[in-house]
Amino acid sequence: MRPRLQLLEDGLIQRIVDEAVSLLGTLGVEVQNEAVLSLLADHGARIDLGSQRAFFQEGLIQTCLERAPSAFKLYDVPGNETNDFCGNKVHYTPGSAALNVLDYETKRIRKPVTADYITYAKIMSQLEHIASQSTAFIPSDVHENISDSYRLFLSLLYCEKPVVTGAFTIESFAIMKDLQMAVRGSEEALKEKPLTVFSCCPTSPLKWSGVTSQNVVDCAQYAIPVEFISMPLAGFIAPVTLTGSLIQHTAETLSGIVISQTANPGTPVLYGGSPAIFDVRFETTPMGAVETMMIDCAYNEIGKHLGLPTQAYISLSDAKQLDAQAGLESSMGATLAALSGINNISGSGMLDFESCISLEKLVLDNEICGMTFRLLEGIEPREDFPALPHFQELLKEGYLIIAEHTRKYLREEHLFPGPSIDRANRPRWEQEGSTTLEERAHREIEKYLEGYQPSRIDGDAARELVGLMEGEARRHGMDQLPEREA
Length: 486
What we know:
By secondary structure, the protein is α/β, with parallel strands linked by helices. It folds into 3 domains: about 10-65, no CATH class; about 70-375, Alpha-Beta Barrel (TIM Barrel); about 385-415, no CATH class. It has helices spanning about 10-25, 35-40, 60-65, 115-125, 145-160, 170-185, 185-190, 210-220, 240-265, 290-305, 325-340, 360-375, 390-395, 405-415, 425-430, 435-450, 460-475; strands at about 30, 45-50, 55, 70-75, 80-85, 90-95, 100, 110, 135, 165, 195-200, 205-210, 225-230, 235, 270-275, 275, 310-315, 345-350, 350, 355. The chain has a 5-stranded parallel sheet. The protein is globular, with a radius of gyration of 24 Å. The mean pLDDT is about 95.
């Protein structure tokens, strides 16, 4: 039996949805994009051009929900299926768009550069429990206007896994779409085997910027999956109660679904978000707060109620170092998310309120993800009945280490984590150097880099990627891209 977590009763879910639909019909949502407002008007939304607000009636919302797929899949660079967003299937992905990286040598945060990103991509290619990569942090050694497309470029070149990404500007979408086309070969092939998910974020409360709303429409045009990342802050720019924040999150996410499905019915979407409570003591948005995690798990239930696959930023920490707090918050989030059946669980590797990536933490989080997968398998009998023969053998031999039953089921029943997790007794631990968690995780990074196998991306596709990115760099005044390894 698979263990499950449920926070909302069915009746409460429906009341939240009803309130959100009512808000969209009475208060509407601000859309700072005339073309998108025109699109919505063409599909029956009431538009107030003076306030740039769109008002959605229940019928339009319901029609768009029916158009949105209840499931979709992602595929890696060679075209193999990696993610199946359906039912309660769980997948993990790192956090996205961090401004800093935690430097192992200095233990201080710094601005990342291209070499850091390549190291990250090489590590990601070998983490077995994290199904997709993300454009995890922003290299500081390229022009800011190409930082979004450049991250996608490096991801596609060095790691085969699909990518959770996003565009910072309207203009950058074109090159990011072309990079995907270079890998897949055609628009139809990309639609058949999606390679990315684009994060599209409404602005709380109840607003879509010109850039983000256009990104939703542009993704829909090419059937590129999007995840809606609504970010209400409970007690600041959302009601202080968890239920009130869920109502706001639902309204903002439903508005994104309407934009997407009016642009192109059937575009794949993830019902996602990155909400948080607001800690008035420090004026921060703690992603590791239990209430933040509760909002995430609860809106997942709402998304499933609406028939949609889900996403959440939840398995991350507000700690500034790879310490006990980092492990506490990340493992608790990853576990709650898995038990809730969130389809795409984002946040691995992330620290400091979604602003910093630690590669050592990414390695540790991979182990946490593996443990949650074992948890989801639950407890099942494996030739345990009748029990008498096993205990007769135990009493006769005094142990069951080499018993046939043990040898048959040992690796199915027991998860053996990697070297980052210390399970040695103290004498052995001391004999092997008394290493810390961070040291062991860093050793794993060194092994991953030594064992890295280049991506199997087609040579012509790789050259086209490089040509496209070099052209984009020149367009923004860069004579050349940062040097990469040969």
